[in-house]
Amino acid sequence: MKVEQIDDRKKVNKKVGYLGPEATFSHLVVKKRFPDWQHHSLGSIEDIIEFVKTFADGEERIGLIPIENSTGGMILESVDLLLEEDFHLYIQEELSLNVQLALIGRKGQEIKEIYSHPTPLFYCRKWLKTKFPRAKIQKTASTSEAARIVSENPYSAALSTRLAAEIYKLDILEFPVLEGNVNLTQFFVLSPFPCVGSTAETTIVFSVKDEPGSLCSFLEPFRDGKLNIKRIVSRPIPGKLNTYLFLLSVQAGKESVPLEKALRKAEQYAIWLKSLGSYPIRETFNV
């Protein structure tokens, strides 16, 4: 498949993989950003990466993975997979979702248990304690799974989405939960090919020597070039004590001359460095 085929959207079969099941926040983003694509619900972030890698002639495959949440922090499973040396996909764009939770269940019924993913449960913990002090809090793999469980269990409710309420035929008991609070989740769209349009951000992965000042020396060229580092996260290399890989996103695209100069200088201090691509930042969606 040639790179040129990616922009010829009339000739390719367009498929996007997301972290399922249906009615997850990833599914909501896919429905808003890629409404005309074939949507494929997948069981894990690793499954999404494999889905994108195994594209066939005559089709375009991309995958949506969560990367960071303003409440829960970095999605470490995503970070660890992006840091692997044999990771050969590119970031096509970054998307954001302003997560607005709904409490869903059955109107008029006592709530004895409340189900949700650990991140919403943590985010809403004070609200839950005030509103439902006697309810038992139950963690699930996703907000959508929480809705499914509630659909089969009376006297329960879920912190989930309005779409999940529709799919599982539940009532919306309160929406939005914690009105006025901002709870952003950011996503990367992955592709086998680099972005060909204008870009606003670049993400790299790298490692430096285990010695004083090595990370500082690597980062100084970005400071000197007045480049803003948006995120930097370190992860240990398995089996190697005090040795780390880093993921770094900088707010500059491939057209940036200061970024080009900074990367050239920083590379001198790196043991290993790889770019995951430059890409645009899209609008923030609301649910």
UniProtKB/TrEMBL annotation:
A Gene Ontology cellular-component term: cytoplasm
Q: Which residues form the Prephenate dehydratase domain?
A: 15-192
Q: In which pathway does it act?
A: Amino-acid biosynthesis; L-phenylalanine biosynthesis; phenylpyruvate from prephenate: step 1/1
Site entry (Essential for prephenate dehydratase activity), positions: T185
- Enzyme Commission (EC) number: 4.2.1.51
**Which catalytic reaction applies to this protein?**
prephenate + H(+) = 3-phenylpyruvate + CO2 + H2O
Which SUPFAM superfamilies does this UniProt record tie to the protein? Answer: ACT-like (SSF55021), Periplasmic binding protein-like II (SSF53850)
Query: Which CDD domains does this UniProt record tie to the protein?
Result: ACT_CM-PDT, PBP2_PDT_1
Please name one Pfam family that this protein belongs to: PDT
Give start and end of each ACT domain: 203-278
- Keyword Amino-acid biosynthesis part of the UniProt annotation: yes
The molecular function GO annotations come to:
isomerase activity; prephenate dehydratase activity
Q: Name a biological process GO annotation.
A: L-phenylalanine biosynthetic process
Q: Keywords in alphabetical order, please.
A: Amino-acid biosynthesis, Aromatic amino acid biosynthesis, Isomerase, Lyase, Phenylalanine biosynthesis
Q: Which residues form a coiled coil?
A: none
Q: What is this protein called?
A: prephenate dehydratase
